Amino acid sequence: MSGVVQLEIAVQDAAGARVAFAAGADRVELCQALSATGGLTPSAGTVDAVLAVAGAGSRVAPLVRPRPGGFVYDADEVALVAADVREIVRRGAGGVVVGAMTREGRVDRDAMRRWIDAAEGAEVSFHRAIDVAPDPVAIMDELIELGVHRVLTSGGATRSVHGIGVIGDLVARSAGRVQVMPGGGVHVEDIARLIALGVDAVHLSARVDSGDAAPSGPGGGNTGFDATDSSIVAAARAALDRAVRSAA
Questions:
Q1: Would residue 62 count as lying in a domain?
Q2: 218 within domain boundaries
Q3: Given this model, what pLDDT does residue 214 score?
Q4: What are the beta bridge partners of residue 130?
Q5: Which residues form the domain of 61?
Q6: What distance in Å separates the CA atoms of residue 36 and residue 80, rounded to the nearest whole number?
Q7: What's the pTM value of the predicted model, to 2 decimals?
Q8: Is 239's pLDDT higher than 70?
Q9: CA-CA distance, 178 to 111, in Å (whole number)?
């Protein structure tokens, strides 16, 4: 673990980013359709708006994921992600979040090389595609060789705290060569246990129902939407800081 452990909050818009930063987040992962799909590539306008709120590109890492479902992509999808990565970095984001796997459960090295090249030096995080690998620890060296900066993982579990053994093994395998960031079903009360593993960051969504009751009609999907909750972010910040002090 480095001397600084960062708090990353998944957000879907500028309002969420504003709340997250005001309550103590170090960085936001920006995506859209988080609850419905697990997150997809945000629009260019959303990227611009969140960058304006953040004040620094290093504080924003947009997810670049072209569709829901698995992480095995065809040539057209790989090209689309490369174009989106290039454009998001051009707009000022300090990093992107991507991930691609082969049908055999290995890292799609060709896709990752193309996307890392498209990032042109911006940080590249490998997302929870690692959690579908039969042996996540075994592919860490591949990610390090490719030049990935950070790995987001739940340890293959629905909730990170239930994958704590695998996350600990990933930290040991990384040996400081790549950041390990647990994320996935993280609750505030889990943070101390995760920090104790020696991780470099903790990721959570801090989402609540917006309470918006405006009708969506037959073609607008479910009523309401998710919003970022400042009290959850603040509690996560406090829990992380306490855990880091205890570990020092």
A1: yes
A2: yes
A3: 72
A4: none
A5: 6-247
A6: 21
A7: 0.94
A8: yes
A9: 19
> Count of alpha carbons within 13 Å of 51, Cβ hemisphere only?
20
1 secondary structure, DSSP code: -
CA 136 – CA 150 distance, rounded (Å) = 14
What is the gyration radius of the CA atoms in the chain, in angstroms? 17
pLDDT digits (tens, 9 = 90+) for 198-212: 999 999 999 977 776
Calculate the CA 114 to chain-centre distance: 20
Residue 1 lies inside a defined structural domain of this protein: no
Question: What is the model's pLDDT at position 1?
Answer: 43
Token pair of 13, please?
A: 């818009």
Could you give the number of structural domains in the chain?
Answer: 1
> Per residue in 183-197, pLDDT tens?
999 999 999 999 999
Instruction: Please report whether residue 144 resides in a domain.
Output: yes
Q: Rounded to whole angstroms, how far apart are CA atoms 221 and 41?
A: 19
238: domain CATH number is 3.20.20.380
